[in-house]
Automatic annotation (TrEMBL):
One protein family per Pfam: DsbD_2
Keywords recorded for this protein, A-Z: Membrane, Transmembrane, Transmembrane helix
Transmembrane helix in keyword set: yes
Protein name: Urease accessory protein UreH-like transmembrane domain-containing protein
Membrane-spanning parts: 61-78, 87-107, 140-161, 173-192, 204-225
Urease accessory protein UreH-like transmembrane domain segment(s): 11-218
Lineage, uppermost ranks: Bacteria, Pseudomonadati, Pseudomonadota, Gammaproteobacteria, Oceanospirillales
Length: 226
């Protein structure tokens, strides 16, 4: 389990990092809103940075909480039954492969998985809208806590990994690693964000990211084979 967890932590971080294009598509709108919510007279770089940091703190906190809940559920349901644990681990590998296919634009069927969370999201999304426009870090933190539950195939693939992690602590740790991997993309603002978005949408970068994700899926699968 230790070897699998180590591989899982690195894989989760890299999945967040390499899935940056997907993150921009899912959260780009709210990030732009945070960047330009303040009136011009108050649009100081430090104020914008505070909004960005607190929003992402809330978002990653929700990922971590979801990982803890799912990891604890997995521990409760499967206990020490190795066969079920391995099955869930293989499902996490398959989801990562599907994510690679999505990032590389080879097959976009993963978007159907995102529909699974739409029922919860239709209750949460209006709460987030009520907090707009964001004027202070407290509002940004609350929006981040809500937006962390946005239906996302990449998040769901990592939650499957958390489900097979063996404990609530391990599940939370995996989702924390994933959330930290998404930070570089979502912290970029202004001109840097436009340049980064342009780069991540380039076909060459998409293909490189997809093959790297496939490589990490293979690395994650290796302990399961041996």
């Amino acid at each position: 389990m230790t070897e699998l967890l180590s591989a899982g932590l690195i894989t989760a971080f890299m999945a967040g990092l390499l899935g940056g294009g997907h993150c921009i598509g899912m959260c780009g709108g709210i990030v732009s809103a945070l960047s330009f919510a303040l009136p011009p007279s108050r649009r100081h770089p430090l104020r914008i940075a505070a909004l960005m940091l607190t929003y992402n703190l809330g978002r990653i906190t929700s990922y971590t909480l979801a990982g803890m809940l799912i990891g604890g559920l997995g521990q409760l349901l499967i206990g020490e039954i190795k066969a079920i644990t391995q099955l869930l681990s293989w499902l996490a590998v398959v989801m990562l492969v599907l994510m690679a296919f999505y990032v590389g634009q080879w097959w976009t069927g993963l978007t159907r998985v995102e529909a699974l969370g739409k029922y919860l999201w239709r209750y949460l999304e209006p709460l987030g809208r009520k907090l707009m426009p964001v004027q202070n870090p407290g509002q940004a933190l609350l929006i981040g806590l809500i937006w962390g539950w946005l239906p996302c195939g990449l998040v769901y693939s990592m939650l499957l990994l958390a489900l097979s992690s063996g404990s609530s602590f391990n599940g939370g740790l995996l989702m924390l690693a994933f959330g930290l991997g998404t930070l570089p993309t979502l912290l970029a603002t202004g001109a840097a964000a436009r340049q980064l978005t342009s780069l991540l949408r380039q076909p060459v970068w998409r293909q490189i990211s997809a093959f790297l994700l496939l490589g990490f899926a293979g690395w994650l699968a290796w302990p399961l084979i041996n």
